[in-house]
Amino acid sequence: QVQLVESGGGLVQAGGSLRLSCTASGNAFSVNAMGWYRQAPGKQRELVAAIPRGGITSYADSIKGRFTISRDNAKNTVVLQMNSLKPEDTGVYYCNAEVTVYRIGSTYTDTIWGQGTPVTVSS
Question: Cβ(97)–Cβ(111) under 8 Å?
Fold first, then answer.
């Protein structure tokens, strides 16, 4: 089974920075696209940023110029650097990955989620 483990959330004042990290672990797999989503209280989960294994990153309009997504393929890790944080960035941030799993007799793709890490930005 492939799992995602996140770290780096917390409480920060408006204008501050946080760095979220997420690592995929398990046996016999490769990671395709990775991304970060967030869910604010009372709202639906939304895409924040995404990064394919080799390609162009994409960002939600609300965070362009403030957040940067990057990945280390050798470590199966994706990082979200969040700068100039605003109170409206508050929410639970979830790591997401599309993985290819290799098993005896079968190969399949799956979409997996991390457990979520809370981010609170105070005004």
Answer: yes
Q: Is 61 helix (H, G, I), strand (E, B) or coil?
A: helix
Q: How confident is the model at residue 44 (pLDDT cuts 50, 70, 90)?
A: very high
Among 122, 107, 111, 105, CA closest to 37: 111
The residue whose two tokens read 């957040």 is: 67
Residue 44 token pair: 């639906």
Contact (CB, 8 A) for 63 and 69: no
Percent of the chain beyond pLDDT 70?
A: 100
CA 85 – CA 65 distance, rounded (Å): 11
Q: Which amino acid, residue 123?
A: S
Q: Which tokens go with 117?
A: 């890490």
Type of residue numbered 23? T
Q: Flag whether pLDDT at 101 surpasses 90.
A: yes
